[in-house]
Amino acid sequence: MTDAANAGPPPPDVDTSAPEEIAAGVFIIRDRRVPLVPNIGIVLGEESALVVDTGMGPVNGRKVLEAARKLGDGRPLILTLTHFHPEHGFGASAFKNAARITYNKAQHGDLKTKGEAYLGMFRTFGPAVAAALEGTVLVDPDDVYEDANTTIDLGNRKVELRTWGRAHTRGDQVVWLPAERILFTGDLAEERIFPIFPWFPPDDVDIDGARWAAILTEMIGWDPAMVVPGHGDIGSVEILVAVRDYMVDLGARVAAARKAGQDADSIIAELSPKVRAEHPTWSSPEWIDFAIRYYATLS
Ligand SMILES: [Zn+2]
User: What does pTM read for this prediction?
Assistant: First the structure.
């Protein structure tokens, strides 16, 4: 292993210098394909502004807050997160008392039961990630919604927050702008990145691959004009199709191999290089093996 590999991933810095307006009043701060940086949204209405995800740690959180204040130009701010994972939500402390923080109930549950453990796990990912997490404080939301969806009216702009229960986590939430047909997916979809299966038994086994694929199929039916994935470049509905097809295909191949008597290790040895080769432009191939181990438990 090289020194660079030992050092872990690069600093997970959110670059807020040039938010990009993808539709009138809808801004994104791109991940620039930097590991552990998410795509972040800032959506303006006439009366308030919604921030979608914060980046990891208080410094990133403060930068995103400043960018939202600048774009929001005095509008009250609302923060929501696509899910509790550190690179998406562990900058939320910067928003405490500066924005109303809104989560769904299952996401809040994930944060309460797993937040500290994930903080500890991510601190082992190398010095740059540990430095970004320095001073992280997990904060409770101001509002928690119990239903499968809720609508926020930002002033002449409605935004729907939707959840289905366990998929990539127990409390995944997408943000949907029905008028503009813009969809923020969180980690239910990445673009040219192998789907992130956080399958970490025995600590975290809260994945439901069947529901996850069904959610993607449902969202494909919404016919989004623009998809902002959790990580990777923004694009069209094709992002959702690619992730859904990958999952359904991999699940079926693992089930067939299990039926033929193979265990997870032997399936990984045989299938993982093939799957990687079939997606030559996708990054983070380490997630293939996590996905295979997950699917292997189903049959
Ligand atoms: Zn995630």
Answer: 0.96
Is the predicted pLDDT of residue 8 greater than 90, yes or no?
no
Ligand 1 centroid, distance to 85 Cα (angstroms): 5
Please write the tens of the pLDDT for every residue from 213-245.
999 999 999 999 999 999 999 999 999 999 999
- φ/ψ region of 166 (left if φ > 0, alpha if ψ in -120 to 50, else beta) reads beta
- Is 102 in contact with 141 (CB distance < 8 Å)? yes
Q: Map tokens 């940086």 to a residue.
A: 37
**33 CA distance to ligand 1 middle (Å):** 15
CA of 84 from ligand 1 middle (Å) equals: 7
Ligand 1 centre from 169 Cα, in Å?
7
Distance of CA 62 to the CA centre of its chain: 19
Burial category of 282 from C-beta neighbours within 10 Å (exposed 0-12, middle 13-18, buried 19 and up) = buried
**Residues having C-beta closer than 5 Å to ion ligand 1:** 85, 187
